[in-house]
Amino acid sequence: SYVLTQPPSVSVAPGKTARIPCGGDNIGSKSVHWYQQRPGQAPVLVIHSDSDRPSGIPERFSGSNSGNTATLTISVVEGGDEADYYCQVWHGSSDVVVFGGGTKLTVL
Amino acid sequence: QVQLQESGPGLVRPSQTLSLTCSVSGASISSGVFYWSWVRLPAGKGLEWIGRIYNSGSPTYNPSLKSRVTMSLDTSHNQFSLKLSSVTASDTAVYYCVSGDYYGRGDVWGQGTTVTVSS
């Protein structure tokens, strides 16, 4: 089965840049999506197809994907960005969708 | 704009079958445009993909749940459903229905419904 690995937590000071990695075997060949989930709320798609932002998502959110690591980058971090973030891919050879374990972003 | 709403019992007894329905508005589930999925969030854990179904095609399931899961479409009511059999406490979670695309992108999520497995 295909596994996506995320660090359990990332901490960043307000106004700084947060980078959340997502590791997977040759993940650079797949299309990666990222979700933000605040406590008690449904997940929200913040990046799709490696680096595209859905309508309404601030430009502070960006994504990249190469080799064995995809990265979600949040620049000029705000308190409202504090949430859990999940990466996700579709593993075509077995036609299954896989989520990473999630990363809790703490704004110091 | 697609909107999704989950419904079903909030409490299920161990060994019984969990049944949830997702009502869809703003799109036809038989249009062939969207993939319809279920995802759950156990307390203190991460998101887990349960499975998805497309138009009238065969659904695909998470291998870890495949033996207990059944998903189906109800075109007359524009709904899709989830059945999870032989539930245990580990199936206690918030369950979400999701609309998305071929590559697993989840564009629209329901608000989620909490299901507790307990006697």
Which secondary-structure class do the elements of chain B indicate? mainly beta
Number of helices of chain B: 0
Residue share in helices of chain A? under 10%
Give the oligomeric state of the chains in this entry, treating copies of one chain as homo and distinct chains as hetero.
Answer: heterodimer
Spatial extent as radius of gyration of chain B: 13 Å
> How many individual β-strands of chain A?
9
Strand content of chain A: over 45%
3D structure, described in words:
The complex is a heterodimer of chains A (108) and B (119). With 108 residues, chain A is mainly β. Chain A has strands at 9-12, 18-23, 33-37, 44-47, 61-66, 69-74, 83-91, 96-99, 103-107. In chain A, strands 1, 3, 4, 7, 8 and 9 form a 6-stranded mixed β-sheet that branches. A 3-stranded antiparallel β-sheet of chain A has the order 2-6-5, with no helix packed on it. In chain A, a hairpin with a 4-residue loop joins strand 7 and strand 8. Chain B is mainly β and 119 residues long. Chain B has strands at 3-7, 11-12, 18-25, 35-41, 48-54, 60-61, 69-74, 79-84, 93-100, 106-109, 113-117. In chain B, the strands form 2 sheets. In chain B, strands 2, 4, 5, 6, 9, 10 and 11 form a 7-stranded mixed β-sheet that branches. Chain B has a 4-stranded antiparallel β-sheet with strand order 1-3-8-7, with no helix packed on it. Chain B is globular and about 40 Å long. The mean pLDDT of chain B is 95. The chains are: A mainly beta (108), B mainly beta (119). At the A-B interface, strand 3, strand 7 and strand 8 of A face strand 4, strand 5 and strand 10 of B.
What is the topological layout?
The complex is a heterodimer of chains A (108) and B (119).
Chain A: E1 9-12, E2 18-23, E3 33-37, E4 44-47, E5 61-66, E6 69-74, E7 83-91, E8 96-99, E9 103-107
Parallel strand pairs in A: 1-9
Antiparallel strand pairs in A: 2-6, 3-4, 3-7, 5-6, 7-8, 7-9
Chain B: E1 3-7, E2 11-12, E3 18-25, E4 35-41, E5 48-54, E6 60-61, E7 69-74, E8 79-84, E9 93-100, E10 106-109, E11 113-117
Parallel strand pairs in B: 2-11
Antiparallel strand pairs in B: 1-3, 3-8, 4-5, 4-9, 5-6, 7-8, 9-10, 9-11
